[in-house]
Amino acid sequence: MLRLGVLCLWRRRSLVFGVPAKNLGLRKVASGVSPPGSTSPRALNIFDRDLKRKQKNWAARQPEPVKFDYLKEEVGRRIADRVYDIARKFSLALDVGCGRGYIAQHLNKETVGKFFQVDIAENALKNTLEMEIPTVSVLADEEFLPFRENTFDLVVSSLSLHWVNDLPRALEQDTDEIQVNYPGMFELMEDLQGMGESNCAWNRKALLHRDTMLAAAAVYGEMYGNEDGSVPATYQIYYMIGWKYHDSQAQPAERGSATVSFGELGKINNLMSQEKKSQ
Asked: Where in this chain does the record put each Methyltransferase type domain (predicted)?
């Protein structure tokens, strides 16, 4: 089965999901841009960042970009849900590689005071989704962010960091998996292009012959095809989160202050019943 790796900045969480798609037909879901070639001295120069900017700009210019937003919408919603799990408000937050604002649209002013949205593609920033949080759009490369350290209380990222050259190996953790069933390999390729997710590696092949692609589609369908004729593709989603400490966050209780031991957790229902009777 084809597995496509995508990255979002969040915490580790290992689950497998299937979610309904919108407008998919048979597709079912089970301060400034850096100059070309400029990377840090230590980075592996694998991806053509200038090409990735052009791909994302092309995708954002299409008359119906929402047609290809199903995966980014779903992951943006999941990240927002995880932000709500943190019992505090973030005055200033940053979304690295925001696209059209897939995370911010699911957040509210009670959770985030102000949201900086950064993306390499100016057309994506011009075509952002509706949201209630005050936002600032910044055109910048994820590899060269124009912010000082210790600026933000919260940093998130959705489906963007997998095209970054200078990515720490520490991101190798357990993943979410979203499986999408496509009518065929060519529909999968069409959607990746519509998402702005076409390959931008320097060593990519500029052109594949039609016979080669037809043969690959036939082999893929024969090896991994579903009974209904569709073919599955699995998106692997990596989650992490980083946020700044704040005094309003819940603090651990003092050592020795617990009233129930771990050994009694199996009897928790009985303990709660006894407490109610004593009240």
From this structure: 94-172
Structure tokens at 225: 């095809």
Which residue in the block uniquely carries the two structure tokens 């919603």?
Answer: 77
Amino acid at 134: P
| Tens of pLDDT, residues 188-247 | 999 999 988 888 888 888 788 888 889 989 998 888 889 898 999 988 776 666 777 777
**Inter-CA distances, 86 with 68, 72, 73, 246, 253, Å:** 30, 22, 21, 11, 18
Contact 170, 43 (CB under 8 A): no
DSSP label at 34?
A: P
CA dihedral 14, 20, 24, 25 (to 10 degrees): 130
Calpha distance 105→42 (Å, rounded): 35
Closest to 179 in 3D by CA, of 231, 251, 123, 126: 231
**CA gap 72, 98 in Å, rounded:** 10
